[in-house]
Structures are given as structure tokens and as C-alpha cells.
């Protein structure tokens, strides 16, 4: 079968960040033996169910997967049998306790680290509910640069009260610390989070659209000038340093998701399925693999919309003929002409791409294309 990635969701964190709406729980001391049995059982089940004998990439996400025992990560990696040269990514936080185990994770088979930096300002880290300092961050980056083949970290911008000059200074420092890849995420207020409740109370207001757009534009220019090209809406990389596992998502290729609440897109007997795992860790451990995953077949038109939504995030865009094959009909020429006339999209042969202006209003473009 074709390229298939593996995502492992580790749902535990030492604290829950106020902006986070992921499936996360406070770390109460996870039993590595129980999780080893569950996760390896999942891999064996998917091997039988979908015929997946090896994975083209492996990604430990969360939550905070660097809290898991490195021996557990090793067991999962060995069972996944990643293909030669596969990217194996681990998300981590730059705290002292996690930094001390970087070498153990590298020895276990992790070759790419994604560090949750979020900001290079201590006051902002406190606002974001993070449990590390800027000095810890810089130390963690220095250690990681010497341990892992590939390294990335992320920052959050469009924070309340953040000026354009503030962002310019912070991003300049980040680019000096970067090693080939940087992820830049706009602060969004997700329903049900602590930040959502704070905004509703009037404690503070999110950044305005004009400031958010100005900070996005500045970031793209500064990253490009530094040699980190904007290959995806929120991700910049030097050539050859793009996140290979995440490219599977954006290029709408198959991936298995295991761990509580993990999602996947798995092809079984020619049919693509959406897969969703049980979200609660206790329920997950108590269930058998067949009980853990809900499988929903995706129609061709459903796949076409998902492919478009993911692929237009990439600077390379999407294939119009692939969309037509999935949807059973081409995108409307009138709509494409309208969006192109407004300077939002480019059609280059079979490839449809967003312009810089189009990337700023991605959701609106998608709405026009799929209505």
C-alpha cells in the first residue's frame, strides 16, 4: 500500500494551558506497562485490519508525550517498523525534567523534536499558563540542537497587547535560535477553554484583525528573509526541513491514529475511513482494540472537501484533477475565475494555489469553493 503515517496521542500534561482545547488530562503517573500493552495491541490490530506492516513517519503528539517513559516510546517505534529514513517526531516542553531525557528519546529512535516554546518572554509565558521560563527554553534548544537531527519549535502571536515591534523583536530572537523549521500560530480563542471564559468575562480582548494580519505578514517576510520559506500557512522551513509527517495530513495521505482521542484516515480494502479513538484514557485502557476505534467510511465528495481544506494550506496547493476524481465533478470554473480575479487564487495547469492574500482569508476561500 502507499505511504501511511502513524500518530500516537499521549493525553497527559503536568498542567492544562488556558488556550488548549485538545484531549488532555493532568498527569497522574501513567502506568507504562499498561500503555505499552494497549498501544502495541493497537498496532497489531491495525496491521491485521488494514495490512500496514511499516510506517512512513511516526509522530508522538499530545498532551506532552515527552512525559512518557522513553522505553515506551522505543517499544512503539520498534513495533511500528518505520521505513528507512522515516521521520520520527516527539513533542516536548523545555522544562529541566524533560530536557534531561532528550538523549534517551533519541536513543529510542526519535530523530526530530518539536518543542513547545510558545513565547520568548517570561511575562507572556505566565499569561499562557506555561511551566517553563525563557532561560529554560534557550537551554533546551541548545541541548536539542546537539541531540536531534531535526528540530522545530512553535510560537504564538496575535496576543493581547502585543505590538508589531514586540513581535518583530521576539521573532528575530526566535530565528536566531531556529534550526531549519519554525511554526507560528495565531492565538485563537477556542470554545470551552479558560481563555474563552476570560474573554467572555471581559478580562481581556483578543488582538484585532488588522494587527493579526500585520503580524502574520511580518512573520512571513522575516522568515523568508532568514531562509525559512512558508510552505504551509503556519509553518516555515528551510528546503529539506519540512515536517514530513504533517505533510501527510496536508497532502491528504493515509495515517493511523492511536492513543486516546486520536483521529486517523485509514484505507481498508480500497475504502478510506475516518477513525476516532475513545477519548477517555481509562475507557481506552479498559477496551480492546476493536472497541477503541469508531470507523466511518468517507464518500468521494467528503474526501474531496477534506483534501481541498488540507491541501490549500500548502504553498504547493492541490491537484484539480485529483479533486475532480474524488468529487465526481470539477470545481466551478466561474468560482475559480472570480477568486483569481480578486487575487486570492492562482491556477497553474492542474495545480490550484492560494496567493499571499488568499492565505489570509483561507476559510472564506474554502467556503466559496465548496458551497
* Termini separation: 33 Å
- The pLDDT mean sits at 95
Rg, Å, rounded: 21 Å
- What is the strand tally? 17
CATH superfamily of the largest domain: Aldolase class I
CATH topology category name of the largest domain: TIM Barrel
Which bin fits the share of residues in helices? 40-55%
Q: What CATH first level of the largest domain would be assigned? A: Alpha Beta
Strand order of the largest sheet: 9-10-8-7-6-5-4-1-11
Beta-strand residue fraction: 15-25%
Query: What is the correct CATH architecture of the largest domain?
Result: Alpha-Beta Barrel
- Global shape: globular
Pfam families: HemN_C, Radical_SAM
Function: Probably acts as a heme chaperone, transferring heme to an unknown acceptor. Binds one molecule of heme per monomer, possibly covalently. Binds 1 [4Fe-4S] cluster. The cluster is coordinated with 3 cysteines and an exchangeable S-adenosyl-L-methionine.
InterPro entries: Coproporphyrinogen-III_oxidase, Elp3/MiaA/NifB-like_rSAM, HemN_C, HemW-like, rSAM, rSAM_sf
Organism: Aquisalinus flavus
Question: Would you write up a description of this structure?
Answer:
- With 371 residues, the chain is α/β, with parallel strands linked by helices.
- Helices cover 43% and strands 23% of the residues.
- The protein has 17 helices and 17 strands.
- It has helices spanning 32-50, 70-80, 96-99, 102-108, 122-127, 134-147, 164-177, 194-201, 209-225, 244-250, 281-286, 289-292, 300-311, 320-327, 333-341, 356-360, 362-370, and strands at 4-10, 12-13, 25-26, 57-62, 87-92, 112-118, 150-157, 181-186, 229-232, 235-237, 254-258, 263-268, 271-277, 293-297, 318-319, 345-348, 351-354.
- Strands 9-10-8-7-6-5-4-1-11 form a nine-stranded mixed beta sheet, with helices on both faces. A three-stranded antiparallel beta sheet has the order 12-13-14. A three-stranded antiparallel beta sheet has the order 15-17-16.
- It starts with a strand and ends with a helix.
Amino acid at each position: 500500500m502507499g505511504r501511511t503515517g502513524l500518530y500516537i496521542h499521549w493525553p497527559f500534561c503536568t498542567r492544562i494551558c488556558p488556550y488548549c482545547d485538545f484531549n488532555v488530562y493532568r498527569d497522574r503517573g501513567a502506568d507504562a506497562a499498561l500503555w505499552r500493552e494497549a498501544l502495541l495491541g493497537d498496532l497489531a490490530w491495525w496491521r491485521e485490519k488494514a495490512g500496514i506492516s511499516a510506517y512512513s513517519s511516526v509522530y508522538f503528539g499530545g498532551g506532552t508525550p515527552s512525559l512518557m517513559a522513553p522505553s515506551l516510546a522505543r517499544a512503539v517505534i520498534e513495533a511500528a517498523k518505520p521505513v528507512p529514513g522515516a521521520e520520527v517526531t516527539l513533542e516536548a516542553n523545555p522544562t529541566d525534567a524533560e530536557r534531561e531525557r532528550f538523549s534517551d528519546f533519541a536513543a529510542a529512535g526519535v530523530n526530530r523534536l518539536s518543542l513547545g516554546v510558545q513565547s520568548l518572554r517570561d511575562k507572556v509565558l505566565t499569561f499562557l499558563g506555561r511551566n517553563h521560563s525563557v532561560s529554560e527554553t534557550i537551554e533546551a534548544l541548545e541541548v536539542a540542537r546537539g541531540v536531534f537531527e531535526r528540530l522545530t519549535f512553535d510560537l504564538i502571536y496575535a496576543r493581547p497587547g502585543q505590538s508589531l515591534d514586540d513581535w518583530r523583536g521576539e521573532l528575530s530572537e526566535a530565528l536566531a535560535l531556529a534550526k531549519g523549521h519554525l511554526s507560528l500560530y495565531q492565538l485563537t480563542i477556542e470554545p470551552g477553554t479558560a481563555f474563552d471564559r476570560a474573554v467572555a468575562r471581559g478580562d481581556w480582548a483578543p488582538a484585532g484583525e488588522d494587527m493579526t494580519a500585520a503580524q502574520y505578514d511580518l512573520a512571513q517576510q522575516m522568515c523568508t528573509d532568514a531562509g525559512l520559506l512558508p510552505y504551509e500557512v503556519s509553518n516555515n522551513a528551510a528546503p529539506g526541513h519540512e515536517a514530513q509527517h504533517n505533510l501527510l495530513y496536508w497532502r491528504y495521505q493515509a495515517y493511523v491514529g492511536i492513543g486516546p482521542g486520536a483521529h486517523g484516515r485509514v484505507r481498508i480494502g480500497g475504502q478510506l475511513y475516518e477513525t476516532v479513538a475513545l477519548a477517555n484514557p481509562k475507557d481506552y485502557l479498559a477496551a480492546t482494540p476493536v472497541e477503541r476505534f469508531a470507523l466511518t467510511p468517507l464518500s468521494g465528495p467528503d474526501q474531496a472537501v477534506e483534501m481541498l481544506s488540507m491541501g490549500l494550506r500548502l504553498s504547493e496547493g492541490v491537484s484539480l484533477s485529483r479533486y475532480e476524481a474524488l468529487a465526481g465533478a470539477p470545481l466551478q470554473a466561474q468560482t475559480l475565475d472570480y477568486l483569481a480575479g480578486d487575487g486570492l487564487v492562482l491556477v497553474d495547469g492542474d495545480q490550484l494555489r492560494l496567493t499571499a492574500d488568499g492565505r489570509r482569508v483561507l476559510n472564506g476561500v474554502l467556503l466559496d469553493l465548496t458551497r
